[in-house]
Design a protein that fits this description.
Elements: E1 5-9, E2 12-24, H1 38-45, H2 49-66, E3 75-79, H3 93-100, E4 106-108, E5 111-113, H4 126-132, E6 138-140, E7 150-158, H5 162-173, E8 178-186, H6 196-201, H7 208-215, H8 224-231, H9 235-244, H10 247-259, H11 266-280, H12 283-290
Parallel strand pairs: 2-8, 3-4, 3-7, 7-8
Antiparallel strand pairs: 1-2, 5-6
Helix pairs in contact: 1-2, 2-3, 7-9, 9-11, 10-12
Pfam families: PRTase_3 (PF15610)
Organism: Leekyejoonella antrihumi
InterPro entries: PRTase-like, PRTase_ComF-like
Length: 291
């Protein structure tokens, strides 16, 4: 946890009040147990809504422990900025808000990213992350006025801090007086080795068979990471996924690749083409995607 710090932004005084995490990474792997285990984190990143509820509530409890409620008349809650299709981190917002609402009035909002991401952020170098994410590509959805607001920004992991900085600058531009950053995992000790994030993502879902088991669960809620991972599968694995995944999941993915314009992104282009060809032979997904 970091204490309050401040800096001038234009004519305003902005403060980052708290940086809190459920787990701090000291080795390049999460423990097998604990509040956030390696297995649990990976399943969460692949759309396990049950774990999203558990983690969101745990973050809510952590925030309440670290804040002086006499200083907070209301709270605005958001999560990692995204384009059209929400990331796993956004599934933390609702359970977090429900947990803290008994103590303080809460509203939620979204931060949107303009443009198309050039690939998997978790696999990018520090330099590539700076190019991919900047304050200029972030904006508060609907131009929401945050003047004087205390804001909580939820995310799954902090590695280089690039996304955190972009969020700070976006939120302050919208008028936020103070921003608290809450994470499942603080891995900033590995900022020079940011692909540790990619390895954590795969801990419980290393291959297409594990991915199929995840998407077949009743607790599965699709997100941008799952969609993009599928679009990067080798053709033989993609064929296996399309043959085994539930039709509603395939239909959602057809719509997701269209909304995020993944066919324009080099690492996904071939996968999107193959995915569309494979699902074109199936009646259900095509109808779901155009409904």
């Amino acid at each position: 946890m970091a204490g309050a710090v401040g800096r001038s932004v234009g004519s305003r005084r902005w403060r980052m009040r708290e940086r809190l995490a459920l787990t701090t990474l000291t080795l390049p792997a999460l423990p097998a147990d604990g509040v956030v285990s390696a297995h649990g984190y990976s399943l969460f990143k692949h759309g396990d809504a049950r774990l999203a509820r558990v983690y969101g509530r745990a973050l809510g409890a952590l925030w309440l422990q670290g804040v002086d409620l006499r200083e907070v008349s209301s709270l605005c809650v958001t999560a990692s900025g995204f384009g059209a299709v929400a990331p796993a981190a956004y599934s933390l917002v609702r359970p977090f808000a429900q947990w803290v609402r008994a103590a303080v009035p809460v509203s939620t909002f979204e931060v949107r990213r303009r443009g198309i991401s050039a690939g998997d952020y978790a696999q990018m170098t520090p330099g590539a992350r700076k190019v991919a994410v900047s304050s200029s590509c972030m904006q508060v959805d609907g131009g929401l006025d945050l003047r004087g607001a205390r804001v909580v920004a939820l995310d799954d992991i902090r590695v280089t801090g690039t996304h955190e900085q972009a969020m700070d600058e976006c939120l302050t531009a919208a008028g936020a007086a103070a921003v608290d950053h809450l994470y499942l995992v603080d891995a900033h000790a590995f900022a020079d080795e940011p692909t540790v994030e990619s390895r954590l993502n795969l801990a419980a879902v290393p291959d297409v068979d594990a991915l199929l088991r995840v998407v077949e669960r009743r607790s599965f809620v699709p997100n941008a990471r799952v969609c993009r991972r599928v679009m990067q599968l080798p053709v033989t694995q993609l064929e296996r996924f399309v043959a085994g995944a539930p039709e509603p999941v395939l239909g959602w993915m057809l719509r997701a690749v269209e909304l995020d314009r993944l066919e324009r992104v080099g690492p996904y282009r071939a996968g999107v083409t193959a995915f569309r060809e494979l699902t074109a032979a199936l009646d259900g997904p095509a109808q779901t995607a155009t409904a």
